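Can't paste images in this forum, so I'm doing it all in text. The chain is below; anyone willing to post the predicted structure tokens underneath?
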Amino acid sequence: MIYFYLVMSGVVMGLVAAVPIGPVNLICIRRSFAFGPLNGFMSGLGAALGDGVFAAIMGFGLTWVAHLIQGYETIIELIGGAMLVWFGWRTFIAPPMIRCMEEREGATNLLRAMVSTFALTITNPVTLVSFTAMFAGLGGLAGGAGSYVDAGFVVAGVVGGSTGWWLALTTVIGLFHTRIDEAAMKRINRGSGLLVATFGLVVLVHLAIKFT
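Text version of the structure:
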């Protein structure tokens, strides 16, 4: 029974990390519209694996890794903010009807989609802070008070919960994939690109203010 509780606790944490609308959600939604639900899901899977990395750091008590991330927090945020601006700009200027070309790239394109969102997730130190708070809310069951086996169940739950969200989201969005025309895709590209770039600019402006 305790393992069921640990897994479900991880699922809840995975959902808390994945559900709020942010740049990764926007990227996955846009890719589901443009390239189909599989591409969107693989993008979400990259984010889920990134959440799993942060969950593992906290669950297995890898405090030295957490301290290392916090020590390089400014550089990591700078990289993450710049990546968001770049992703936003590329999305904004993307041709509206490149669906067939992208889908022909097959596994290579899917791997690229997953790696890109994984990189965006792990360059967001705020996620580590969020998991720190969520693990503390579990009363230490998944952290230092439990075993590595216990922590492993929680981490698996985090990845599973986050993956489940991306599967559900991209499946629903995928129902409209073939109904999107060129004009609508152009609006989606520009809207999502502008929002993603704005997230990145907010991060960069915050860093600039911090050091002025």
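DSSP finds ten helices and no strands in the chain. The chain has one domain: 2-210.
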